[in-house]
Design brief:
Layout (H helix, E strand, L loop, with lengths): L3 E4 L5 H12 L3 E6 L13 E4 L5 H15 L2 E6 L14 H29 L2 E6 L3 H4 L5 H21 L4 E8 L5 H4 L3 H10 L8 H12 L10 E4 L8
Parallel strand pairs: 1-2, 1-4, 2-3, 4-5, 5-6, 6-7
Helix pairs in contact: 1-8, 2-3, 3-5
């Protein structure tokens, strides 16, 4: 397709899989990362930018770098996120607000900057990466669940604002995915999780990325304001 795409949190897990999927689709990708380094096995031609989505200036700089390298951004995937799990009675204010600032307000910063450029182009795709816990909830994750459910309202409101300009805004809601984070789970916890998933397995990052790629592509031109679960059936009924 040859478009300019920007992916936040693109140096590992779901974000890296999305980077690879968009490159395979023919897009020119700019990927942001907050810490660490770009992966050695990343696709060739990706523009890497160190940026923290809690910093508006850093988000703006990432979009400017993407435009300089590949042209105006036509696909934006807000994937960067953090967790700070704790039971609510023990959760300090900072752990609540910092998770919202990264996961929800950070995605707002990305979507706002993306929409501004896409309105001028009169086309574009914005995809926000949420979670199955956005609607089902999760004990010990009131901050994370609140941030991820907020993405649904953000996306659907923005979809109504920009739809007349040929811009779609959608949400992907993964369940448990094979990442560095889930690799740290105990065998007992892993067995418990799999027992609640109808497909009896975790998703691969590539399976989530495939849905992101679909929503970012031409085949999804009439899909907007949608929340697409990629959770093996875990969130059915929510």
């Amino acid at each position: 397709m040859g478009r300019s795409a920007l992916v936040t949190g693109g140096n590992r897990g779901i974000g890296l899989a999305v980077v690879r999927a968009l490159v395979e689709a023919g897009d020119s990708v700019t990927a942001t990362y907050r810490s660490g380094e770009p992966p050695a096995d990343a696709p060739e031609g990706v523009t890497w930018v160190r940026a923290d989505v809690t910093d508006t200036a850093a988000v703006d700089a990432a979009f400017e770098a993407a435009q300089e390298a590949h042209g105006p951004v036509e696909v934006a995937v807000a994937n960067a996120g953090i967790t700070k799990d704790q039971l609510v009675m023990r959760m300090p204010d900072e752990d609540f607000t910092s998770v919202l600032d990264t996961n929800l307000t950070g995605s707002f910063r990305v979507a706002r900057r993306a929409a501004a450029g896409m309105l001028r182009l009169k086309r574009g795709r914005i995809v926000l990466v949420s979670s199955v816990v956005a609607l089902s909830g999760s004990a010990g994750q009131v901050n994370y669940a609140a941030s991820k459910s907020g993405l649904v309202g953000l996306a659907r409101s923005l979809a109504r604002e920009v739809g007349s300009r040929g811009i779609t805004v959608n949400v992907v809601a993964p369940g448990f995915v094979e990442t560095d984070m889930t690799a740290q789970l105990s065998d007992a916890r892993r067995t418990e999780i799999l027992g609640s998933v109808p497909l009896k397995r975790l998703a691969s990052p590539e399976e989530v990325a495939a849905v992101v790629r679909f929503l970012a592509g031409e085949d999804a031109a009439y899909v907007t304001g949608a929340v697409v679960p990629v959770d093996g059936g875990l969130g059915m009924g929510h």
